[in-house]
Amino acid sequence: MQNVPSTCVRGLIWINITHLLVQQL
């Protein structure tokens, strides 16, 4: 059960990173 929340958080982190990279481009 603990793996599901960590996966969601990791996904949000990846989305934030990609969003920042797109803005820099």
Largest sheet: none
Q: Given the structure, what is the number of helices?
A: 1
So what's the overall shape?
rod-shaped
Work out the helicity level: over 70%
- Give the radius of gyration: 11 Å
**Beta-strand residue percentage:** under 5%
Structural class: mainly alpha
End-to-end separation in angstroms reads 37 Å
Taking all residues together, what is the mean pLDDT?
88
Structure description:
The chain is mainly α and 25 residues long. Helix content is 88%, strand content 0%. It is built from 1 helix and no strands. The longest helix is centred in the middle third of the chain and has 22 residues. The radius of gyration is 11 Å and the shape is rod-shaped. The N and C termini lie far apart (37 Å). The model has no long low-confidence stretch (mean pLDDT 88).
